[in-house]
Amino acid sequence: MNVNERAVQAVEDGRRWFPANTNLAHDALSLCGEAGEVANIVKKIDRGTHTLDEMMVRLVDEVVDVQTYLYEIMGLINEAHEKKYGMPVDWDAAYDSKRQVNERRFGLVKDIWVQHGSNKES
Q1: Going by C-beta distance under 8 Å and a sequence separation of 6 or more, which residues neighbour residue 66?
Q2: What is the pLDDT of the chain when averaged over all its residues?
Q3: Spatial distance between the Cα atoms of 85 and 80, rounded to a whole number of angstroms
Q4: Contact criterion met (CB below 8 Å) for 91 and 3
Q5: For residue 90, how many C-alpha atoms fall within 13 Å in the half-sphere facing its CB?
Q6: pTM, whole model, 2 decimals?
């Protein structure tokens, strides 16, 4: 299943499971909530009260929740994009394009820091 197929599936699931709440605002808020759950698990690992091994199953579960809402948001955006432009977003091309922008923005900066002996990153 490709990205667009997963996005369609996520929207269909969302409409079936939560018919009153499948919209961009609700899904964006839900995504933030799930990302917060991931962050909370990582915080517990970072402070040493839990290990990655102990939290692995929960962490994977929460990351998949994040992924699910992200796919649903992508699916809703696809629906709007298709109405306006007659085709869904090419998410692979969008990712590749954004990655190139980030490489130009951040790749050179990191290379300069490494050349000057700094381990500072942002």
Answers
A1: 31, 34, 35, 38
A2: 92
A3: 9
A4: yes
A5: 5
A6: 0.83
